[in-house]
Amino acid sequence: MQKYISAILIYLYCQTLTLAQKTDTALLKEVNTIFKTYDNLKTPGVAVGFIQNGELIFSKGYGMADLEHNIPINTKSVFSLASVSKQFTVFAVLLLEEQGRLSLDDDIKKYLPHFPNYNKIITLRQLAAHTSGLKSHGHLLGQKGYTPDNVITKNDVLNVIYKQDALNFKPGEEFNYSNSGYVLLAEIVEKVSGKPFSIYLEEQIFSPLEMSDSFVMDDYHKIVLNRANSYEIDNGTYVNAPANYSYYGSTGLYSTLLDLSKWALNFANPKIGSQSIFEKMNTLSQLNSGNTFGYALGQFVDNYNGLEYIHHAGGEAGYRAFLGRFPETNSAVLLLSNNSAIDAQGLALQVVNIFLKKKFKLTNKTSSVDQRQFKKVKLSREYLEKYSGLYLNQKTYITRNIFVRNDTLIYARPEQNNRETPLYPLEKESTFQLGDYPDLKIEFSTKINEKYMRVLENNQIVDFYEPYSPKVYKAKELECFTGSYYSKNLDTTYELSVINGNLTITHPKLGEIRLSSIKKDGFLASSWQFRFLEFERNTQDEITGFAITSDRVRNTRFQKLK
Hints:
Layout: H1 2-16, H2 25-34, E1 46-52, E2 55-62, E3 64-66, E4 71-72, E5 79-80, H3 86-98, H4 124-129, H5 137-144, E6 152-153, H6 154-162, H7 179-193, H8 197-206, E7 215-216, E8 231-234, E9 237-240, E10 245-246, E11 253-255, H9 257-268, H10 275-282, E12 300-304, E13 307-316, E14 319-326, E15 331-337, H11 344-356, H12 381-385, E16 389-392, E17 399-405, E18 408-413, E19 419-425, E20 431-434, E21 437-444, E22 453-457, E23 460-467, E24 483-487, E25 492-499, E26 502-507, E27 511-519, E28 522-525, E29 532-537, E30 543-549, E31 556-560
Parallel strand pairs: 6-10
Antiparallel strand pairs: 1-2, 1-15, 3-4, 5-11, 7-11, 8-9, 12-13, 13-14, 14-15, 16-17, 16-23, 17-18, 18-19, 19-20, 20-21, 21-22, 22-23, 24-25, 24-31, 25-26, 26-27, 27-28, 28-29, 29-30, 30-31
Helix pairs in contact: 2-11, 3-7, 5-6
């Protein structure tokens, strides 16, 4: 009982710290309302802060860092930064470049001579911009059979990266988020500096910025003082979701809200790094075509309510992290969480809406005004039905189900438990607003012989879907696909069988994954490890193998065993 009372007193003390901060009471009340759900002794929550004109004017913890020991979150609670770590990795590389010890345009094989030979040059810049074509190690390990409960070491990650013999695409041709590139950048930092990545960052970043509670997690066994434990929800109950990872570069940095604020402040008032480094980090990267795609180096560059918006989010196990900067207003928002159910960016932008609402400006690219107010459009059910159907993205193999309910067109996401959003017609009758998101539009083709659906964000196409009609197989017809299949790139075997009339993949660690047909020899999978499976045949029309594809790993091949 005494332990519980002490926890309450500590919790209340942490909350009163806000009173000393340079934020008026009305704004504090608005921010507290955003995080009210997490502001209790039974919920893992967040540490959130806002920077304005070179000062951390607001910082506060909501919820619990440790549910088992009744320890609340505060501004010195330690969280994984997950993918927010990437900007530290890029910064380390750019420091070495400024010293003339490497160049972003160097071939990675200059530093990693045993890296697989793809007969194509892959540069450090392409690793940092996610344009290398490298398959992302997280999905590769998932396809190999690793689960969230597994310990993942640096050797595990490097081994699976080095065993690949094909790229997703030619380097520089596309943007496709790949964590593999950042693991390799950390390796290159170690090779060039001659020091462990953890020591190099401590000497070059953490110590100069007085980030005394920040470090690289190169051994998951480490004892971490003030660590916020990692949680997820399972059947309505919070459970432990430990991050058993001992690799870095793409992730691996741990920090606190106060320490991360020092990193954010360094962009505007540098203690370390030059203006040239920050300009490189903030400048949009280019494809071979010269086109940009919204990513710079370790950061996304965007527009929010008319303001330049540079940001990155991260998530691993139950940890969520977000850092967003608004250079025009000399401000930044930070959010760290140990609750996997949290939308870090969404919550952070709600905080931004409070602190920067008077500085927002509308542009042609971004509008915060619901477009439905300009014209009330009423379309008949018959008219809406022509857009109904199943749609498939041929790159990601994500599907959408469009149908009419009560004279309203509905946008459903099968891979998200059929989450639905209404589509509201706009002035152009083939274009709809996606729910209550004024900057998201769904546009359908109006051509008789061409049917497609495009998703636009700020009037830019971000997704393209085509209609499809699933092929229906009888259980007996599926028998030709059954058998054992082996992948040399993953060194693992999948068993295919027909269970209850459905073609099913079985793996000792992944269990059963049900497949659903979308075309001849093509099947969708209900798993994060891969989305699409396509069988391969020889000239005698016999099944010889298959390839599986996910968002970040394309065409991992399996050969049928005899």
